[in-house]
Structures are given as C-alpha cells and as structure tokens.
Amino acid sequence: MRILGPLAARGAVPHALLFTGIDGIGKATTARALAMVLNCQAPLAAGEGRPWPDACGQCRSCRRIAAGLHPDVIQIQPEGTFFKISQIRGLLDVLALKPYEARYRMAILCDAQAMTAAAANALLKILEEPPARTILVLTAGGASDLLPTIVSRCQPVRFAPLDPSRIAERLTGAHAVDARDAVVVAALAGGSLAGALALARQGAVDHWRRRRDWLARLLPELEHQAPSVLLAVAEELARDGKRAGDSLELAKTWLRDRFVATLRPEWVVFGDRREDLRRLAPAERDSARWIWQIRRIQQAQRDLAANAAVRLTLESLVFDLARGGGASSGCN
C-alpha cells in the first residue's frame, strides 16, 4: 500500500490498475485491502506509524470485504484455462449498474493474462468508458502477458518478491508455523507467501531443514573430500529430482547469510542459526571465493531450470565448488 495509500488518501485512485508480480505475493489481497480503505465506515486517521488513513478492519463494510461477501467487491478468475467471453460480458452487465452500497465498487480480475483476445477486447469497453465510482484491478505475472491495448489503459503497480524474513514472520505470526520451519520454507519460496505456506503444509519441512543443515556442514569441507565422496554428494542432491534447485537455493542462502551475519545480522534469513553464522563468517581474504561459489550455484540453478541433465549438472557443480573455482579465473 506504499503507492496506493497516498492515492486513496487524496481520492486519486485510477479507475484501472494492473498489479503484476509472481504468484502468491498478495496482489488480490492488496486489491481487497484497497477496497477496504476506500469504503471503510470508520477509517483510522493518519498519525504516528500510519502515514495515511487506513481501514479500521472492524466496521460492517471491512468485515464483509474481508470475508468475500461484499456485493460491490467482485473477484473473478478463469473458468478453466482461460476467461470465457461470457464471464467478461457478465461483469460488464454488473458494472453497468450503480453500486449497491459502496462508495467505490471494485472488480478484481485474477490472472488477467488468461483472457483470450475476444475477452480482452470486450473488457476494453469498460476501460475506455469507466463507470463512476468503479475501480477495475487486473492481476497478472507481467504486463507483457496482456494485450498492449489493455496495459496502456491501466496504471501499473509492480509487486516485488517478498523478503524471506518477512515471509517467515508472517508464517510464524499469522499461520502458527514453527519458527525453525518458517525460515527454511521462506528461503525456498522465491518471495511468495502462498508458496511458503504450501511448502509448510506439504509435510516435507523436516526434509528441507535437515538438507539445509547438511549443506551447512558440507560446504566448508568439500575441498578436502575425495572424488568418490564428491560424486556421492552430487548423487544425494539429485535425489530431490525436480526440486534439486531448492537444495541449491538453501546452499546459496547459507553462503549469503555467512556474509551478512556480522555486517548486517538483521538481514540473515536463517535466523535460527544466527550464532553459528556469525562464528563461521568468512575472513576477508575468502570473500572473492565465496562470491564465486554463490554465482556458480546460481548458474547451476539456471541450467536446471533450462532442463539440463540433473545428475551431470550437480556433479559439475560439486567438483567446481570443491576446487574453490574462479576467484582468480575471471568467471562471473
């Protein structure tokens, strides 16, 4: 709400907004929060710790919006793979009427990139001639997924991936996830709260926490291991199959945490291991090597995402990490 809050306070929210960003980052949730701010019956005034007015969350309007029961806050999503043109036409029929009770009616189209060309062209009518007191919010992965004629008529709002520490806080505070589990799934979620919640509910958190701790012990010792041991390490990493990249994400996050543990301890992702990280922080002379290792892991993740052979990719990575690699070889 950092961008939308001031607009709402001035009564200057555009009639059409395009929220873009990864799945599970809170785009539709933010749209509903904006609807609450615009329609709250007892708004909280701006003050200390609140730079602009906010919704009370307790009035009848706020409660109905939060529960998905407000008749003037409409959320639709594709029926199957795509939006049907009948869905868009039905929405246009509703928006042609006056709002039932809200000061501002809001229509939220989730996954708007799933509109066919016919559905998108039908939506253009409402974008070109917006009804009074109506705000249309489209959510999508990226603006390039939509027709340029749609994008040009919307105010873009880009959602950045959430910081893992914020995800962990939400998991422990609002969803009662164990703190040790929360920091691990937050590191794997790619900035998505919904993704982290899904991981936490899959019952595999113990596996990933053990994997993280195994990697933390292993990484400093790789250069001292025999080739047969390195091959065994690659084989063990490959056991995760399509999720082998997640093991690499844990390794990369652990190395990154070792850098920031003493300089900016509040930036540490694996807060449950903060003291260990401080103790293991690399000496200044090792920094170039650690940076190279992080970059090498990132390259392996890109290779896996491009469907490279899992076992061969991991074997190459493990042997490179064991050699210490290109701190002086010019690799980047």
Strand element count = 5
* Helix and strand sequence: HEHHEHEHEHEHHHHHHHHH
Tell me the structural class.
alpha/beta
Overall number of domains:
3
Q: Approximately what portion of the residues adopt beta-strand conformation?
A: 5-15%
- Radius of gyration, Cα only, in angstroms? 24 Å
Q: Which word captures the global form?
A: elongated
State the end-to-end CA separation.
Answer: 37 Å
Please state the average pLDDT score: 86
Helix-residue proportion: 40-55%
Determine and state the CATH class of the largest domain: Alpha Beta
**Cross-sheet strand order for the largest sheet:** 2-3-4-1-5
Largest sheet: 5 strands, parallel
CATH homologous superfamily designation of the largest domain: P-loop containing nucleotide triphosphate hydrolases
Assign the CATH topology of the largest domain.
Rossmann fold
